From TrEMBL, chain A:
Key word Nucleus present: yes
Organism of this sequence: Brassica oleracea var. oleracea
Keyword Repeat: yes
Protein known as: MMS19 nucleotide excision repair protein
Superkingdom assignment: Eukaryota
UniProt keyword terms in alphabetical order: DNA damage, DNA repair, Nucleus, Repeat
UniProtKB/TrEMBL annotation, chain B:
Family of the protein in this entry: Belongs to the MIP18 family.
UniProt keywords, alphabetically: Chromosome partition
Gene Ontology BP annotations: chromosome segregation; protein maturation
Pfam families documented for this protein: FeS_assembly_P (PF01883)
Name of the protein described by the UniProt record: MIP18 family-like domain-containing protein
InterPro entries named among the record's database cross-references: FSCA_dom_sf, MIP18, MIP18-like
Every MIP18 family-like domain range: 39-107
Length: 1123, 158
């Protein structure tokens, strides 16, 4: 009973119109839930509601009925008793006549009629009663917007769900609809109304039916909306977009053929209007009509329709035809919306009824075009009207041809001979017959207009060739007479296009464009039934390839030919045309690859490489072939250089490698099998280097070494672990057979290292760099042989100043699994093994617990300055590797580096300034992200938050050292190191520590601003400061230190060495205005003075910032100085 | 004061597109970019007309050519053209331009503001008023005037 008590409450709440809508919705929801759960049955509800449904209070009654209707809407999918449904629909039907409760009645009817697929449906008889009652008692247009929409929805629903019943009603429905629509203006209602008309049209197809007899009236009511125009566009988000509504109207107009006598003249009239929207809508609607009205009805209007359509096409075409690279595969001119709609209509009409084509074929304007064509040789010479003529007629003919095979045949039969005649491919003999002019290409006349028309026709016709599966099912000989026409002329056409390309010169791209586009069109016919024979296809390929091979500069022609070849390549791949693929391989790929291979080629190497890589990436087999070619080219050029000292060859090698890195590697995921070929390539690089034992000529080939290491590293980076292993193995073999191995025997002692004066030979340097790049690119899973001696090798090399060796060592300690201990032992403790040879130094303390030679060298105990700086740099890379994997040993390294920054270290030695500088920069190496090694691309092991960890270890140490530092130099260097750490750590870390850091950052800024060498470091530190100024976390400490910050920034506004520093400093000053007024006001004068000085800055950007900043600072003091 | 607007229906012209400077400033850290015509025009083009919600550029009161500048001699002259001959707002316009330039240019500059010859009924008097240091200073002591000028300048600082 509780449920019932609640019910009364909810009912009261809903019926009370003074309550808020949310209140109503809540009570509605509550009742609906209890109904759904079955606590309350619909019968009970009706009984309970008795009073509300029958009361004489109109408002309460209306609310009551609405409530019941809403409930039914909630229960759409709940099975109900048929009897209940019957009585309910009866009730609502009766209430339709009562205008006060019409909304509830409409909603109720709609909810019941909408019921579908559940027990308790409205019977056809009841539905008929609803429709009758509605038609007789509701004046739709006198209702409010929402109620009108309900009316239309109810009509729509009735027509959709009870078609038989509605047919019984006949005229009544049509009248009701007419009356309802008359004068409707709201898009949501119209949308439904148009659909109702469409349904009516479908429901009464008989010529004696009510729609047929009332067609004129009904059409009048909907035609007045055409073309749709919104007067109120804004402020109504829920409204229907114009496009949707216009589509609905179009469907309504085209719904029944009985509208035809009224619709087509109206649409033609609107088509002639100057309003673009009207044109588009009419064209779209005409297309719908053509589909629905049927050929026989449309036929009557052909003679009006064709000129109108033609005019629309003429009016919507622009005359600027593009001869650019990008339009090689597109029509070459802009298509507006009108144009597209007109083209669609034309295609539809021709497709539907071939007799429409008769009008096109006989049209005088279409036929005139041949005269126009033969009047001008060049496109740019034509008058605008002639251009338009050519473009539009080409469009008309190609669209008609595209419609069906039949129309294509007719077009080709009618026009192609004439076109060929115009172009001089067929000759008229004295008897008046047209004779194919087989072998005289001399007489061909390359009219641009004609070529364009020809290309358009060929391009569209190629889509009509059935694909190979369909081929077998349709008898082709009967229907494809166009095909035979094309094949008759194909040889001459190819000839003509070829001569167009060849006759072109650089200043006019139109010839080349049309020629290449023509060849492309001829080359893109699909399948076995292609009108272009294989030998002709090969001829096209040969022509295009020879253009690529013959041009020595990157002309438009060259680019066009390349793009055409790429198009054809991907076309062959898409339709898997095995025969053509063979031709393509034999002619294009092999030719280009052999060009790459041959060293005596007139073509500049980068162009040939570009062409080859573009063309070959269309199909995996080509890629394989190409990489093979590259390999060979690399090997021959390289040995040519080694033996003959040909410097051009080594340049070629560099270019080749660059092409591999820049063109091929980025497309690795797109091209199957590329990885395998590239790994093979890498191995043959090693083979080649291995076999050329002696470099008879020295070269300062930095460029080559760089290109080679880059390519090698990237290939290893993308290769699978197995392939990596094989490359590493190969590389190791080369290393172990080279003279480099001798370095492994060098004991890591001071004396031995000092003796290493001799530099590496060119070959050894190349091998070392390549090997380093292999190690850098290898993944942690790859196995590295003989770790101990390799570490040794790298150690010795970087001490001699080869930085790649240090990077490789860093990568090794970063990625090694089980071998790590051994490697670290070698690096840090080697000295103890051969300790006897170190001159023992009693004063040396243990640093970080290891008595390593390396750290001693770093601290300058032994050896030259060079050795010391190399050791410091190397140590930084090793430290980076360890730091990123989260190894504890990095702490020792950090300590050594910090020690290097002290003016006199623990053992009392004074450090050289250069060593200190290197040590400070080592912190940058440690903290910044590197492009060349130890990144994600090269599979580095990266522990999260490693930067934060290093930050928290080093910053306290550096801070305390700064406080205690004795010399200015050491102080500066410590600040540089700290700036590197602080500016590379994520900004959130800084914000957490603003309070601690702020003063040291400020001090750093003033220390670093002394010397211009530190300008970049200064800038990054300034950026850190600017990050803290605005953040809420740092606000308190910024506010406390405002005087120091402003003092520092004011100084930096005149920093002479870097513009961005001045700019940022001024921006920071402007930001400081967000601080409490009381904190900053005292500094006003000082800031204004500095900023006023900045108004005269040599750089404009600084001046702009200064003006803004000055204005902002002036305005905090209302009006004591107006300027 | 006249009630109603002095020029009720001014012709509004299109804004000229902001020229993006192509000479890259990053190319040389130490090269000097002198203050030039366009820079000065950029400072004053967005000043709003005291009467209408349009900028002085839109009303063609100012054009780029109306600015003459010599950075070496620290001299700038702006010649503006009131929309109507008897425009009593010309003083306010001139004052706004002067204040804006005083705030934007380094103090070494001498600023000369003039009405275009023949464009105003009391041309001579106006020129004298606008370039008299004492009178300008006095005008800027008047809170009403300052408020008006600041309002005109507000869009140019965005």
């Amino acid at each position: 009973m509780a449920a019932l008590n609640n019910l009364t409450e909810h009912l009261e709440a809903f019926v009370d119109v003074t309550r808020s809508p949310t209140h109503h919705a809540e009570s509605l929801k509550a009742i609906a839930t209890s109904l759904e759960k079955g606590v309350l049955s619909i019968n009970q509800l009706v009984v309970e509601m008795d009073m509300y449904l029958t009361t004489t209070d109109d408002v309460v009654r209306a609310r009551g009925i609405l409530l019941l209707a809403e409930m039914l809407d909630y229960l759409k999918s709940k099975p109900l008793d048929n009897a209940v449904v019957h009585s309910l629909i009866g009730f609502f039907t009766a209430k339709l006549a009562e205008w006060r409760s019409v909304r509830g009645a409409l909603s109720g009817c709609l909810a019941l009629i909408k019921r579908k697929g559940v027990a308790g449906l409205v019977t056809a008889v009841d539905a008929e009663a609803v429709a009758k009652s509605m038609a007789q008692s509701i004046q739709v247009q006198s209702l409010a917007l929402y109620d009108r929409k309900l009316c239309f929805e109810l009509l729509e629903c009735l027509l959709e769900q009870y078609p038989e019943a509605m047919i019984n009603l006949g005229d009544l429905m049509v009248y009701a609809t007419c009356e309802a629509i008359d004068g409707e203006k709201d898009p949501p209602c119209l949308m439904v109304a148009f659909h109702v008309v469409e349904l009516l049209g479908r429901l009464f197809p008989s010529p004696s039916g009510p729609v047929a007899s009332e067609a004129s009236d009904l059409f009048e009511f909907i035609s007045c909306y055409f073309p749709l125009h919104y007067t109120h566009t804004k402020g109504d988000e829920a409204s229907i977009p114009r496009e949707d509504l216009s589509r609905g109207l179009s469907l309504a107009i085209s719904s029944t053929p009985f509208f035809e006598p009224y619709a087509i003249p109206l649409l033609l009239e609107k088509l002639s209007s100057s309003l673009p929207v009207a044109k588009v809508d009419s064209l779209k609607c005409l297309k719908d009509c053509a589909v629905n009205y049927g050929v026989s009805r449309m036929k009557k209007h052909y003679k009006d329709l064709w000129p109108a359509l033609k005019d629309a096409l003429y009016a919507s075409t622009k005359t600027d035809l593009s001869f650019g690279l990008e339009s090689l595969t597109s029509p070459g001119f802009e298509m507006g919306e009108i144009h597209r709609a007109a083209v669609n209509l034309l295609q539809r009409l021709v497709k539907q009824d071939i007799s429409f084509l008769g009008l096109v074929v006989e049209d005088i304007r279409v036929n005139m075009v041949f005269d126009t064509i033969s009047r001008y040789l060049r496109y740019e010479e034509m008058l605008d009207t002639s251009k338009l003529e050519v473009l539009v007629v080409s469009q008309i003919l190609s669209v008609s041809a595209r419609s069906s095979v039949e129309s294509c045949n007719i077009i080709f039969q009618t026009f192609f001979f004439r076109l060929m005649n115009t172009l001089g491919i067929v000759e008229k003999t004295s008897t008046g017959d047209l004779v194919h002019n087989e072998n005289s290409t001399v007489s061909t006349r390359l009219y641009h207009g004609g070529l364009h028309l020809c290309i358009e026709l060929l391009t569209t016709s190629k889509d009509l060739i059935p694909s190979s599966e369909e081929c077998t099912s349709t008898p082709e000989s009967a229907q494809q007479s166009w095909c035979s026409i094309v094949s008759r002329f194909s040889a001459s056409l190819i000839e003509a296009f070829t001569s167009a390309v060849q006759s072109s010169n650089d200043d006019c791209s139109a010839d080349a464009y049309l020629g290449v586009k023509g060849l492309l069109a001829m080359g893109m016919f699909r399948g076995g039934s292609s009108p272009v024979s294989r030998s002709e296809f090969e001829k096209i390929l040969t022509t295009l390839t020879s253009i690529i091979a013959a041009n020595s500069a990157k002309t438009v022609k060259w680019e066009l030919a390349l793009k055409a070849l790429v198009c054809m390549g991907s076309f062959i791949d898409r339709y898997s045309e095995s025969e053509k693929a063979m031709s393509y391989m034999a002619i294009v790929v092999e030719n280009l690859v052999s060009l790459v291979r041959s060293s005596h080629c007139s073509l500049p190497s980068p162009m040939i490489l570009e062409a080859t890589s573009e063309v070959c990436s269309t199909r995996p087999t080509y890629v394989e072939k190409m990489v093979e070619g590259f390999e060979e080219a690399f090997c021959s050029s390289f040995s040519d250089f080694c033996v003959n000292g040909n410097f051009k060859s080594i340049e070629n090698c560099s270019q080749l490698l660059e092409c591999v890195t820049n063109k091929l590697l980025p497309r690795l995921t797109e091209i199957d099998g590329l990885e395998k070929s590239l790994v093979h390539f890498a191995i043959s690089m090693w083979n080649q280097i291995e076999s050329s034992v002696v470099f008879s000529y020295d070269f300062n080939g930095r460029e080559f070494v760089e290109a080679a290491t880059k390519t090698m590293g990237e290939i290893v980076g993308v290769a699978s672990v197995d392939s990596q292993n094989s490359i590493i193995q190969k590389a190791y073999n080369v290393i172990s057979s080279s003279t480099l191995l001798a370095m492994e025997s060098i004991p890591l002692t001071f004396a031995a290292l000092e003796g290493l004066q001799r530099d590496l030979s060119t070959r050894d340097e190349l091998i070392l760099s390549l090997f380093a790049s292999v190690i850098i690119g290898a993944s942690p899973k790859a196995s590295i042989p003989d770790v101990k001696s390799l570490v040794h090798l790298f150690l010795v090399s970087f001490l001699k100043g080869y930085i790649p060796a240090a990077q490789a060592l860093g990568s090794m300690v970063n990625k090694l699994g089980t071998g790590l201990e051994e490697a670290c032992d070698t690096i840090f403790h080697e000295s103890s093994a051969s300790g006897s040879s170190i001159p023992s130094d009693d004063s040396s303390k243990t640093i970080g617990g290891s008595e390593a030679l390396l750290s001693k060298i770093c601290l300058g105990f032994y050896g030259s300055l060079d050795l010391q700086t190399h050791a410091i740099t190397g140590l930084a890379w090793i430290g980076k590797g360890l730091l990123m994997r989260g190894d504890k040993r990095v702490n020792e390294i950090a300590l050594v580096l910090v020690e290097c920054l002290k003016s006199t270290n623990s053992s009392g030695n004074a450090l050289h300034p250069s060593a200190m500088k290197h040590a400070a920069d080592a912190f940058l190496t440690l903290m910044s992200d590197s492009e060349v090694c130890l990144n994600r691309k090269f599979h580095a092991v990266i522990r999260p938050l490693y930067k934060q960890r290093f930050f928290s270890i080093t910053v306290p140490i550096l801070e305390s050292l700064i406080v205690n530092s004795q010399t200015p130099l050491s102080r500066t260097m410590l600040h540089v190191a700290l700036a590197h750490v602080v500016s590379n750590v994520p900004v959130t870390v800084i914000l957490d520590n603003t309070k601690k850091l702020l003063s040291v950052i400020l001090e750093g800024l003033s220390v670093l601003s002394v010397d211009s060498v530190h300008k970049e470091t200064l800038f990054s530190l300034l950026l850190v400061l600017s990050g803290t100024l605005t953040d809420i976390k740092g606000q308190q400490s910024v506010s406390d230190n405002a005087h120091r910050i402003i003092e520092c920034l004011v100084k930096l506004t005149s920093y002479p060495h870097l513009m961005v520093v001045r700019e940022t400093a001024i921006q920071c000053l402007a930001t400081l205005l967000e601080l409490p007024h009381g904190r900053i006001y005292p500094f006003r004068r000082e800031v204004l003075q500095a900023v006023t000085k900045a108004l005269d800055d040599p750089k404009r950007r600084v001046r702009e910032e200064a003006i803004k900043c000055r204005q902002a600072w002036t305005s905090i003091s209302s009006r004591s100085t107006p300027f | 004061m006249v009630s109603g607007l002095i020029n009720e229906n001014p012709t509004v012209y299109e804004r000229k597109e902001r020229r993006v400077r192509t000479d890259s400033t990053n190319s040389d850290e130490f090269s000097v970019e002198p203050i030039d015509q366009l820079e000065i025009f950029d400072h004053i083009r967005d000043i709003r007309d005291p009467e209408h919600p349009y900028s002085l550029e839109q009303l063609k009161v100012l054009t780029e050519d109306s600015v003459e500048v010599d950075d070496l001699k620290s001299y700038v002259r702006v010649t503006f053209t009131p929309t109507v001959e008897h425009c009593s707002m010309a003083t306010i316009i001139g004052l706004s331009v002067r204040v804006k330039l005083m705030r934007s240019l380094p103090p070494r500059y001498k600023i000369d503001i003039r009405v275009a010859p023949g464009s105003h009924a009391t041309e001579a008097a106006l020129n004298k008023q606008l370039n008299d240091k004492e009178r300008v200073a006095a005008a800027l002591e008047n809170p009403n005037l300052v408020e008006m000028v600041d309002e005109c300048l507000s869009p140019s600082f965005e």
